[in-house]
């Protein structure tokens, strides 16, 4: 049985669903699914390596890259340690996004699932939380990235810029293919994106949708979860398009200053030019 040799650790709201869809279509890559949350959630990690490895049992010799995408791993020091203990040679993929935009996108998900009714600015200032993390902390990368760079050699970590995905999907994916040691299939980047911002038709529907997703993960039905997440009929039933889908420019400027020093430190770690996010 092949074991995973790469993990996309996040952060969230960086196109992981689309990236998963592309990787699933690549003939030399095997992906178990999205959001397994094995290494960062005690209840899953307690099930042991055999339970985890079982998700990759269908990987074959034609699959040179085998992995998973769980976008909350980046925020967990425990996950970093557990991944290192599992495989010290694991390849780690990190896709950074403008932190203000990322926080706003997380906020939209909180609205979608009925977790807050505050404005974005108030949710940030009042430290609204989701998945046990304060909203503003989703955009603080430095310490979280450092947890991984302290363990894994630089050659085993690929830093990506989410802006590159938006501007040139083919070049963006080629960086991933090269990092994983597989052939380039540029035509796969034509797969359409589909994660548009929505809100619950009723608050209770959003709460139930999130609870149901967590339950399916708990009972090991990730394939069922993937099918449901991709169901356009179910999405239409539960959610509607958000009326206000853009960040207020005053909010952008206000919170940009908060992430300034953190971003400069991340630049030194990642060797990415992130200056357009804070200048």
Radius of gyration over C-alpha positions, nearest whole angstrom: 18 Å
Give the fraction of residues assigned to helices: 40-55%
Please count the beta strands (DSSP E, at least 2 residues each).
9
Inertia-based shape: globular
Strand order of the largest sheet: 2-3-1-4-7
Structural class comes to: alpha/beta
Question: What's the quaternary structure here?
Answer: single chain
**Mean pLDDT reading:** 89
Question: How many H/I helices?
Answer: 14
- Biggest β-sheet strands, sense, barrel: 5 strands, parallel
Amino-to-carboxy terminus distance = 49 Å
**Into which percentage range does the β-strand content fall?**
5-15%
Q: Which residues sit in consecutive blocks of at least 5 with pLDDT less than 50?
A: none
What is the H-and-E element order? EHEHHEHEHHEEHEHHEHHHEHH
Description:
The chain is α/β, with parallel strands linked by helices. The protein is built from 14 helices and 9 strands. The strands form 3 sheets. A 5-stranded parallel sheet has the order 2-3-1-4-7, sandwiched between helices. It has a two-stranded antiparallel sheet with strand order 5-6. A hairpin with a 2-residue loop joins strand 5 and strand 6. Helix 7 packs parallel to helix 14. The chain is globular. The protein starts with 5 loop residues before the first strand and ends in a 9-residue tail after the last helix. The model has no long low-confidence stretch (mean pLDDT 89).
Primary descriptors:
alpha/beta, five-stranded parallel beta sheet, globular, 45% helix, 9 strands, 279 residues, two-stranded antiparallel sheet
């Amino acid at each position: 049985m092949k074991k995973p040799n790469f993990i996309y650790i996040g952060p969230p709201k960086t196109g992981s669903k689309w990236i998963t869809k592309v990787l699933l279509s690549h003939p030399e890559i095997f992906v178990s699914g999205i959001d397994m949350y094995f290494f960062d959630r005690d209840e899953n990690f307690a099930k042991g390596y055999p339970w985890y490895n079982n998700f990759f049992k269908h990987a074959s010799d034609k699959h040179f890259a085998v992995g998973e995408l769980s976008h909350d791993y980046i925020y967990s020091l425990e996950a970093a340690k557990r991944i290192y203990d599992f495989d010290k040679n694991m390849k780690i993929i990190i896709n950074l996004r403008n932190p203000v935009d990322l926080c706003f996108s997380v906020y939209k998900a909180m609205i979608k699932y009925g977790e807050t009714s505050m404005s974005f600015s108030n949710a940030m200032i009042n430290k609204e939380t989701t998945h046990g993390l304060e909203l503003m902390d989703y955009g603080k990368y430095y310490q979280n990235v450092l947890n991984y760079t302290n363990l894994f050699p630089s050659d085993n970590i690929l830093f990506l810029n989410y802006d590159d995905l938006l501007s040139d999907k083919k070049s963006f994916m080629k960086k991933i293919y090269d990092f994983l040691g597989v052939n380039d299939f540029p035509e796969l980047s034509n797969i359409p994106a589909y994660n548009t911002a929505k809100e619950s038709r009723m608050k209770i529907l959003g709460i139930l949708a999130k609870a149901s997703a967590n339950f399916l993960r708990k009972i090991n039905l990730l394939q069922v979860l993937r099918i449901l997440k991709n169901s356009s009929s179910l999405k239409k039933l539960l959610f509607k398009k958000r009326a206000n889908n853009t960040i207020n420019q005053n909010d952008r400027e206000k919170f940009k200053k908060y992430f300034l020093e953190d971003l400069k430190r991340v630049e030194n770690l990642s060797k990415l030019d992130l200056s357009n996010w804070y200048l």
